[in-house]
Amino acid sequence: MSIKSESYKDKKVISIGTVSEITGLSERQIRYYEERNLIFPYRTKKGTRKYSFSDVERLMEIAEMIEEGVQTFEIRKKILKKEKEAVREKMIRGQLNARFGVLRLP
């Protein structure tokens, strides 16, 4: 049995209509956030957008920030900062694991 490294949360399998229902955002809003480089759906060969559960979570965060009056360029900066911090944390965990053996941090 093979274990895939991709989490179920990151699999791009959800249609834009379903994402719209889950988030309460219109399809137009979702496409706008894609245009602003805040979300990156997978495109099938026919051009259909597919989203992951992680994308849905990000859209909910974006919607909350928009409601608070945060501009899309500021949101993009916050998202990039958060992603860089996640990569850094993963690298540190890898270094600790390599040095001290299997280490699981919360």
TrEMBL record:
Task: Name the Gene3D superfamilies for this protein.
Answer: 1.10.1660.10
A single MF term (Gene Ontology): DNA-binding transcription factor activity
Lineage of source species:
Bacteria, Bacillati, Bacillota, Bacilli, Bacillales
Species the sequence originates in: Bacillus smithii 7_3_47FAA
Q: Fetch the Pfam families from UniProt.
A: MerR_1 (PF13411)
Stated name of the protein: HTH merR-type domain-containing protein
Q: Please give the InterPro entries that the UniProt record associates with this protein.
A: DNA-bd_dom_put_sf, MerR-type_HTH_dom, MerR_fam
Q: What is the annotated signal peptide range for this record?
A: none
Report the coiled-coil segments: none
Which intervals hold domain HTH merR-type? 13-81
Swiss-Prot/TrEMBL keywords:
DNA-binding, Repressor, Transcription, Transcription regulation
Keyword Cell membrane set for record: no
